[in-house]
Amino acid sequence: MEENIKELISTCPQGMKTCGYETLDKLAENLRTKIISTVSTTGGHLASNLGTVELTIAIHRVFDSPKDKIIWDVGHQAYSHKLLTGRWENFHTLRQKGGVCGYPHRAESEHDKFNVGHSSTSISGALGMALARDLNGEDYHVVGIIGDGAITAGMSFEAMNMLGYTKTPAIIILNENGISISPNVGAFGAYTNRLTNKIVYSPVFNEVRKDIHYLLDNLKDEKMLEIVKDLRLKALSVLSDEIFFETLGFAYFGPVDGHNIKAIEEALEEAKKVKGPVIVHVKTIKGKGYGPAEKNPTKYHGASPFDIDTGEFKKGGSSPPKYQKVFGQALVDLCKDNKEVVGITAAMAPGTSLDLLQDAYPHRFFDVGIAEQNAVTMAAGMACEGKIPVVAIYSTFLQRAFDQVIHDVCLQNLHVVLAMDRGGVVGDDGPTHHGTFDLSFLRLIPNLVLMAPKDENELRHMLKTAVEYKGPIALRYPRGSGTGVEFEEMKTLEIGKGEIVKEVENPDAVLIAVGRMVDNSIQAAEILEKEGKKIKIINARFIKPLDKDLIINAINECDNVFTVEENNLPGGFGSAVLELLEENVLIEKGKTITRIGIPDEFIEWGTIPELFDITGLSPEKIAERVKQKLA
Ligand SMILES: Cc1ncc(C[n+]2csc(CCOP(=O)(O)OP(=O)(O)O)c2C)c(N)n1
């Protein structure tokens, strides 16, 4: 890197405000190189970040962070923002334990104004900050940056609905690249794309807008105001026949070439002058500047480490099939046998492997975009009419649709299958993405059956069970590779029946484990057996209904019972077992139930083994906990 660019970066964001565009182009080039080289070793979001390099430079030149508040949506495209606000030197630690967070994180920098990871929060966050600013009588800009995928979620519309009504000054930058993770779906995306093809940000449009806004701000006479408002709508409809944002009460600037720093700056400077909500619509290329990512932005949305020259992902040796692939294939197989089964995803077809269904049965595959609430209620509607919808959603994103699961699915006792992907800790995405609350928040809902497979073979059985069951039913399984177990023919499991996976006579301890923790418990038992301890292991399979007989027998049989779950402890599987004891007034003097699970806190980012170690869920830590108790 040239010395002057190195020096410039150390002074950013202030330092670049006085730079010429030639230097800025060099800065952009260096940002891209840094992002590509870092992500090629750490993994991370590549394509989205390559698309926002110039946009970020322009934002930080026009606005004054941290005084002005910059709020990223999802936050997966904020690497340039991080690099320009003091995190260049330790950027190589991206997404690693103790290192730079993959998303904006308030604790990390005063320039990160809003923690994020889930999508479509930026307009609401900006609205809240802008309202607070006005209440406090302060003076700064609030800027939200949202993608054309993220803007399609209901929350964005709820926030725009209010912003257009309160007229609170806030600048929303809509970054359109046509892609969510897969190609963007929905009528709104098609609409913004139509806008892209118009020259709306023209001098005449701006002149008319300026004059009208001047009149609206200064006219006192009510009647005249009404006439000008009417004139405004008519003028807009002539200049551009369909600017949705303007009709909502936003001033609209765009579309702007999102790789032209000067053009973006001009639009942002205009936006700054408006005394109300503004949309600045920029058009970018996802993956810009790195051939493989430009060509296939979906593949490089969330990239694992790769070879920069070839773009090939590095292989980590052969590993057992991923839960996701097993799920996707099992669903296709079940669809073959039952024509009523359909699959629904909320913008995560590749991540959930629902793309296998999309290929096999395109008309039975539904991608609703980033709209988890809609996905669940739409499934309820389909179930009313005899379809068997399998809604594949990451556990963390299903949090969005909690009420829909209660009100639309379970209250009506509808046969909807919730396939919760990435249950448990997910690794380097960190606290916004861990799926460690679902056992708690689903367990409390009447009518719902809730299960978790111990391995990828049992996942197939559970999916078949769920498709054949007549009512609301959920299964949660983890991210990544299974255990490598052999596949049996898919079979139906008895609802509410667990299994003993390791029987011993007169056990010193019984471990009742859920999901992936069955395997960790087996490994923990191997450690303990070397020290002469006899450990019985139960695979709970069902979190609801519990296998009461199996659990009560285990407690009668042994003084030291442990529940092991990859879920936050409050309200989880262990709590369910304690509630069962209370109901049955079983516990005798000297008997203990120890709940092992994720402590009542948010867990940071790191590799999955590191996170197991931190949370006490590694085989060694489980063994240690049992040993302490037995001692
Ligand atoms: C509630 C929620 N659902 C799903 C996701 C997964 N997700 C992360 S980024 C993304 C696509 C966002 O598309 P867009 O806003 O257009 O940004 P781009 O990556 O194209 O720049 C999705 C679906 C999420 N983060 N939050």
Description:
The chain is α/β, with parallel strands linked by helices and 631 residues long. The protein has a seven-stranded mixed beta sheet with strand order 9-8-10-11-13-12-17, sandwiched between helices. Strands 2-3-4-6-5 form a five-stranded parallel beta sheet, sandwiched between helices. β18, α24 and β19 (592-598) form a beta-alpha-beta unit. The mean pLDDT is 94. Thiamine diphosphate (TPP) binds next to α3.
Please supply descriptive tags for the structure shown above.
about 625 residues, alpha/beta, seven-stranded mixed sheet, five-stranded parallel sheet, 26 helices, 19 strands, binds thiamine diphosphate
**Biggest sheet, spatial arrangement of strands:** 9-8-10-11-13-12-17
Number of alpha- plus pi-helical segments: 26
Q: Which radius of gyration do the C-alpha atoms yield?
A: 27 Å
Structural class: alpha/beta
Percent strand equals 15-25%
Q: What distance separates the N and C termini?
A: 59 Å
Shape: globular
Largest sheet: 7 strands, mixed
Percent range of helical residues: 40-55%
Mean model confidence by pLDDT: 94
The bound ligands are: thiamine diphosphate
Low-confidence stretches: none
- Beta strand count: 19
How are the elements arranged and paired?
Blueprint: H1 3-11, H2 21-42, E1 44-45, H3 47-51, H4 53-62, E2 69-72, H5 79-83, H6 122-136, E3 142-147, H7 154-166, E4 170-176, H8 187-196, H9 203-218, H10 222-239, H11 244-248, E5 251-257, H12 261-273, E6 277-283, H13 291-295, E7 302-303, H14 323-337, E8 341-345, H15 349-352, H16 355-360, E9 365-367, H17 372-384, E10 388-394, H18 395-398, H19 402-410, E11 417-421, H20 438-443, E12 449-451, H21 456-468, E13 473-476, E14 499-502, E15 509-513, H22 517-529, E16 535-539, E17 542-544, H23 548-557, E18 560-568, H24 573-584, E19 592-598, H25 608-615, H26 619-630
Parallel strand pairs: 2-3, 3-4, 4-6, 5-6, 8-9, 8-10, 10-11, 11-13, 12-13, 15-16, 15-18, 18-19
Antiparallel strand pairs: 1-7, 12-17, 14-16
Bound molecules: thiamine diphosphate (TPP).
